[in-house]
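Example 228.
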Amino acid sequence: MKLVISLGGSVLMSDFPECKKMRAFAGEVERISEDNEVFVVVGGGRVAREYINAARNSGANNTLCDAIGIEVTRLNALLFASHLSSAPKEIPKTFERAVELSKLWKTVVMGGTFPGHTTDATAALLAEYVNADLLLNATSVNGVYSDDPFRNPDAVKYERLSPKQLVDIVVKGEIEAGSSNVFDLLAAKVVERSRIRTIIFLGEPGNIEKAVSGNFDEIKKIGTVVEP
Ligand code: UTP
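Predicted structure in complex with uridine 5'-triphosphate:
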């Protein structure tokens, strides 16, 4: 299978600089890449938000804030790649280069690409570009809810959604640089048009392998499956 995994910075970097989680995720990715072609897109997390806030407080516009966020995602991507023997220590800036590298390596790690969206959308566009079989989005929530579950205790979790339903849910969120939604609107629109099977799940070590397993009974405990 060809897989694209979006690893949110907030899950990957939560114990930085200890990086125990990063080592655990790296182990999973190495195991998965033995039987699959794997692309990982790494997010910026708290550090990206701090840089973006500092830039915004000094008057930077959203495009410049996005550019700063992208640099942080690329830095995190290189740190993650340094934990993987299956991946090159080059972080591609384009999808074309990512594909070139994938011909030589089992895993390719990248960060953001251009302003206006988050790495969820980068991952969805990459999944479309490489005709991936599956898009995995590891995030800080165990799936998609009817509302923000951290703020609204009555929010209901969805086990399955159509791409159109996903778009309708995330369209209510914000698109400012550094804003945090369960899934980026552009990513949802790309999933809708490309009809790629997508799993949005809690980014804890062990869960990537569960998501890849295809076992819906296991997957519904940790996330939401989006498919036409
Ligand atoms: P992230 O993908 O990390 O955003 O990109 P996030 O939603 O905060 O995700 P977590 O916290 O890592 O899970 C950080 C910022 O970098 C810019 C955006 O401003 C985004 O909010 N960015 C990232 C881009 O403009 N383009 C990209 O391709 C990627």
